[in-house]
């Protein structure tokens, strides 16, 4: 289809309670820059059941316009309902580009929407810009197993669509919003939704893992030596009020559940503090945590790649270093 406007859309995914998932609000930050370069509006598309909290959040974080679809059929995500609704809105308004968070739902939704609209999709992006010569979106993502970064453009079809990893961009400061809010009365019939939600499971086992929302993450890699080594990692995470993360090597070895994995095939995170313990710094792992505000590396190898991205480095045995750190943290808080 042809674009009717130069607008850039951000799909702001909602939770069942009507609040916005972080990634949608995060994407309004690069969206502001990109929409200005394209010469169009920054539009937030919100679909959910009574999503007023998400509307307020998008309004406070820079959206020029907010298109809202509100209905009980959108309370829990289903591919059919959301794909039908998004495609209908895109065909009506004709944006030139659209970003979707690369959450589990977003990774399911992006391909379905792009296929129905006969356009391209760049998945799992970690960088965004507008090409000055062509005006196309320059989508950057890891390629060839994370060994290089590829920049991809979609010059012939509209809208240009990409899914973007959570945690790559930071939310801008909230301001008093002045967005134009458009409420669309659009409903999807029950017989058009071919799946039924039987149960929503929010936790894995006895532990809830929220890496994307964590402000402090302490991660362990191959250097922890085994599953028992993560008890030491947890001591530091607990002392700091943080969350335990892991490299792919540790997860593949079966030392910790995949829900803790940070990296190209895990979660992309951007905490205020990231502590990498016994992690060498493979590019696949760096792709998932390099946007952290402060990075601390603990490793016995002084030549480990992780030190090249760390703000602070400690060369030493993590099993000797971490207990000292925990003791000092406890003293400081006493």
Arrangement of strands in the largest sheet: 5-9-4-1-2-3-10
Helix content: 25-40%
Report strand %.
15-25%
Largest sheet: 7 strands, parallel
Overall CATH architecture of the largest domain: 3-Layer(aba) Sandwich
Query: How large is the count of helical segments?
Result: 9
Mean pLDDT comes to 92
Structural class: alpha/beta
Radius of gyration from CA coordinates: 21 Å
CATH topology grouping of the largest domain: Rossmann fold
Give the N-to-C terminal Cα separation. Answer: 63 Å
How would you describe the shape?
globular
Helix and strand element order: EHHEHEHEHEEEEEEEHEHEHEEH
CATH superfamily of the largest domain: HUPs
Commentary on this structure:
The protein has 334 residues and is of the alpha/beta class. It folds into two domains: 8-192, Rossmann fold, CATH 3.40.50.620; 216-333, TPP-binding domain (Rossmann fold). The protein has helices at residues 22-26, 28-38, 52-60, 79-93, 104-116, 229-240, 248-252, 283-289, 318-333; strands at 8-12, 42-48, 65-70, 97-101, 121-125, 127-130, 137-143, 148-152, 160-164, 180-184, 216-220, 243-246, 273-277, 294-299, 312-315. It has a seven-stranded parallel sheet, with helices on both faces. A five-stranded parallel sheet has the order 12-11-13-14-15. Helix 4 (79-93) packs across helix 5 and helix 6 (229-240) runs parallel beside helix 9. The longest helix has 16 residues, at 318-333.
Descriptive labels:
334 residues, five-stranded parallel sheet, 9 helices
A few lines on this structure:
The protein is of the alpha/beta class and 334 residues long. It folds into two domains: 8-192, HUPs (Rossmann fold, 3-Layer(aba) Sandwich); 216-333, Rossmann fold, CATH 3.40.50.
């Amino acid at each position: 289809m042809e674009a009717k406007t130069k607008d850039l859309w951000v799909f702001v995914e909602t939770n069942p309670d009507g609040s916005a998932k972080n990634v949608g609000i995060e994407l309004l930050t690069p969206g502001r820059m990109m929409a200005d370069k394209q010469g169009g509006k920054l539009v937030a598309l919100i679909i959910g059941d009574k999503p007023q909290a998400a509307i307020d959040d998008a309004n406070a974080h820079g959206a020029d316009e907010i298109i809202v679809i509100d209905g009980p059929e959108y309370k829990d995500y289903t591919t059919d309902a959301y794909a039908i609704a998004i495609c209908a809105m895109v065909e009506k308004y004709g944006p030139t580009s659209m970003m979707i968070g690369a959450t589990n739902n977003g990774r399911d939704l992006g391909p379905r929407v792009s296929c129905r609209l006969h356009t391209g999709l760049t998945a799992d992006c970690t960088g965004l810009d507008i090409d000055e010569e062509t005006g196309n979106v320059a989508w950057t993502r890891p390629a060839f197993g994370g060994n290089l970064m590829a920049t991809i453009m979609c010059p012939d079809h509209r809208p240009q669509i990409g899914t973007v990893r959570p945690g790559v961009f930071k939310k801008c400061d909230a301001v008093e919003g002045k967005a134009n809010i458009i409420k669309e009365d659009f409903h999807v019939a029950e017989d058009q939704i071919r799946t039924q939600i039987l149960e929503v499971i929010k936790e894995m086992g006895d532990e809830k893992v929220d890496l994307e929302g964590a402000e402090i993450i302490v991660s362990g890699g191959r250097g922890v030596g085994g599953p028992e080594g993560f008890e030491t990692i947890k001591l530091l995470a607990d002392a700091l009020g943080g969350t335990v993360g892991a490299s792919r090597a540790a997860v593949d070895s079966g030392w910790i559940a995949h829900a803790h994995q940070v990296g190209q095939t895990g979660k992309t995170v951007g905490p205020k503090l990231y502590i990498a313990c016994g992690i060498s710094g493979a590019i696949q792992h760096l792709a998932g945590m390099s946007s952290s505000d402060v990075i601390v590396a603990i490793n016995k190898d002084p030549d480990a790649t992780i030190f090249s991205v760390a703000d602070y480095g400690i060369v030493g045995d993590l099993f000797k270093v971490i207990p000292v750190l925990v003791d000092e943290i406890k003293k400081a808080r006493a």
